[in-house]
Amino acid sequence: MDFLPKGLKDIAAASATALNRAVQFTEERLGHSERTELDAYFENLLSRAEQIKSWTEKIVTSAEAVLQPNPGTRVEDYLIEKLAVTEKRKERLRNLEWLGSNMVAAGQELTPGDTYGSALIKCGQTQLKLGQVEREFANKADKEFIKPLKKFLDEDAKTLSKEKRLLEVKRLDLDAAKSKVKKVRSTDQPQASNRSYDQIVKELDEAEAELRRTQDEFDKQVELVTEICNKIIKSNEQHVKYLSKFVDAQAEFYQQQKNHLDDLLNNRTSNDDANSHSNSTGFATFAALSENSSNTPEQQ
Prior knowledge:
Endophilin-B1; Substrate Binding Domain Of Dnak, Chain:A, Domain 2; mainly alpha; 300 residues
């Protein structure tokens, strides 16, 4: 191929390499060729790293479902994130905020001034506060827990997948070179191959040089993948910190929700005490209404 331009030579060489890989892969599948096996330590290391990657993906997906239960909204957020939309969007209302808004609106419009209307407004205002707390928790958990894990998946885990695929390519090249050396050695008699002794020696030297080169590249790739696996396994220490921040945010979230509900319950209790003998509005008549409802069948 000396007469070919350099660009065509490169294409021809790449095509030959790809063909050798395909042949090697096919022969391995058919059991006609041996393959280089990775040592047990490396296999175990790679398995642990891939388990961390797999479980991190599942944890991120589950956490996102907790923070945003609506799958359609999650898909929309995912597309916006991937498309890198910079336009500022109006923040969505949480479900509790929708509930609170509707309760307040209903209390103001449907039964203004009476017991049920006042109770709806007070309960709705609390739901709005709960929704705001939920929003703050979701933002904090996303920033301190989900986003760091996503960064890990986009960087270290993705690098592992890429280098693992390249390792398989290097292994195919190595085994193809081994097969070539074996084939040349099996026909090293000039009378058996209709080639001169010098031709056979030259082919064997070239095949062995190719074997040394592919072995060196394979060994280097194994070292690189080993480093990445160790880095991923060590990242568990940082993931514990992310998890701790998530738990702290969750504890704060539930405590704030409890405080708002306690305020609502205390407001109801104080109204009950202050208005036990009056017709004033609010939560004061909730207990009375419930009691009357339960006593109605007996009175009849």
